[in-house]
Amino acid sequence: MDVCHYHHRLATRWNCPGCHTHFCATCVPGGDGNFPADEPRCVLCRTPLLYLPPANTKTPFWQISARFFTYPVKGQAMLLVLLGALLQGAAPDGLLGLLLNILFYAMVIRFSLHVVELLAEDNWTPPALSSVMLGQEENLFLKQIGVYVGFTALGLSAASVHPLFGLAYLAFAGLALPASIMVLAMTRSALRALNPLLLAQVMLGIGWSYLLLWLCFSVVTSGPFIVAAWLPEEQNNALFSALLGATSCYFAVVSHAMMGYVLFSRAESLGITDEPERGETLLEADYFSQQALGQSTVLIRAQRLNEAREVLNRALARQSQDLALHQRMQRLLSLLGDREAMQAHLEVYLNLLLQQGQGGKAVETLQRARQQQAELLPQDARLRHQLAEHAYRQSRHELANTLLVGLHQQAPSYPALAQAYLLLARIQAEGLGQLGNAEKLLGFVLKRAAGTSIAHEAQAFATVLAGLRRSAVAN
Questions:
Q1: How far is Cα 460 from Cα 112, in angstroms, rounded to an integer?
Q2: pTM summary value
């Protein structure tokens, strides 16, 4: 299995005939419902991409054989089996009995061909008897009889040329019978069901498993005769006839269910389905976001950083609230070393994270950015205050302290400066053990917020700190 050039654990879904690069569905997301005309194209060389559909992963029919043998005992398939037993066991003798049997046999053929059609679409619900009896089925019974007669006539014609030709054709017809039934069920054409070239194409399209299908078909359709052979010679004629009728219907449905599922599992190779959609169609917003992320991944790995930046800028202009796009942009700006752009974008990204209730991730993002550029700090006082609160709750006291120290000089008119410095006093006292600095900060808060609840809170904390100092001196 070919793997993506950029995601080595993912299978290739697209190949570029221009630069011979393999892409996965992460690099090239979306489906035909998303792609404009002449797209998708390779982000590296702009050549139209070729789609590589996933390998057929449908379960082979012989691995789910139990489902075929239980299929006739559910829904109206069971009703058909019981009806077969009743009709065969109680049918009158003479012309009336013969007509009833012909009508019932016609219904069994129509029902069985319906089963092929439904299983070819992976629909495991048996058809309704009413739709089979009353529906316009294009004379399927007569067409199926015509196929049997046609096989015989063609065999006799071949034999008239040379006996070996006749034997060879009859051998071919016996082998091709399941293929013929499948073609008739799907095309409603007796002529196509007799076409040896089309039948050979179907058998070759299914491959070696067709031989297993033919063997199963031969064994299953012999079921009624096997059952009859087990019965004692003194059996009740009515009971024998009922049992034979039930088993004939049962095994007819089983064999046709097998053929229908084989059509489903080999639909692509047989060309009986529409061309599958390339990829998986996404919601428009999701598509543009994932497309930008995929293209930027490829361009970053190819060291085409400025092009990746253009891709992300276009996407963010359209979807400014997308956190994944902002995260990728922050990483890219770090790679570019553009400190000014990184600073400006960092504030936007951090604000967005806080607005969406992701304070913990905002703190991690800031800390990671400062590992690349140690001097990076938000300029907005409110943002610094909010980040410091989240950092304090995470016990990241050094970062929280850095965010708030000197805030009175940088933003002296910040309305919540007293609250920010009360928090800074807690950080320095509890997290950094700097009791003296904490007391000075509390003095500033008491003057700044005199007469407010903040001042009362600061006074209570100052009292606690004074008690700690006295305790430390006594010890």
A1: 87
A2: 0.58
